[in-house]
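Posted in: Protein Modeling Q&A

I'm a second-year student putting together a small comparison for a lab meeting, and my supervisor asked me to include a predicted structure for Type III pantothenate kinase. I've never done this before, so apologies if this is the wrong subforum. The sequence is pasted below exactly as I got it from our records. If anyone can share the structure token output, I'd also love a short note on what stands out.
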Amino acid sequence: MILEMDCGNSFIKWRVLDGALAVAGGVVDSDAGLIAAVLAVPALCVTRCRLVSVRSDEETSSLVASIGAAFGVEVLCAKPAESVAGVSNGYVDFTRLGLDRWLALIGGFELASGACLILDFGTAITADFVASDGRHLGGFICPGMPLMRDQLRTHTRRIRYDNVSAEQALLDRTPGRTTVEAVERGCLLMVRGFVLTQLELAREYWGQDYEVFLTGGDAILVRDMVPGARLVQDLVFVGLAVACPFA
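Accepted answer (user: helix_wrangler)
Welcome! Here is the predicted structure, written out as tokens:
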């Protein structure tokens, strides 16, 4: 069984594969929480492991050591690269492209086998363009819903509401008649406007001959805008398997 991990700054997303089937998975907020969660799954036998991490080298090394001690396996770690599986890194300095972004666009190209637009809706929103020959043309980064919401809460004294109210406010798209409705729906309009711009640019590049991939926790908020898009929440893991194959 293969343990895969996507290690962000705050959380670790993990899953265990038995062949091509994901048999367990989840999200934890610490190295210890990860080990405990995996050990708690009945009849699980981890034999191989790979991960992508945007954490510091020291934090990543500590996690790798903990996994090795707990499961007795070596850990393959994704590394920056100029090219992988026919995809060329489009950054001027390839080491500066976030590894999670890099793997997501590798995963998108792997699934599309052609030109694709990858839109990732997390704390920040990223857009990446990959041409039919595998050239990464670059991308865009803007604040996601969590960042926009938190900035308004932090810098505007009278904006105070909880997450449940935020979720309820997004059930409708009409102009808000309360502060929470106005903020949440206004932020959503900004996100949707960003998506429209990316789609326009993709059409300028490739006409209709491209695929769109949506990933990240808030991808569902824009899915209706791109009916033909593919919602792939584990797109980073698809790229991780390509970048870190087992011999």
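A couple of things worth pointing out for your meeting: The helical segments are 31-39, 57-71, 99-112, 145-155, 163-169, 179-206, 235-243. The first helix runs from residue 31 to 39.
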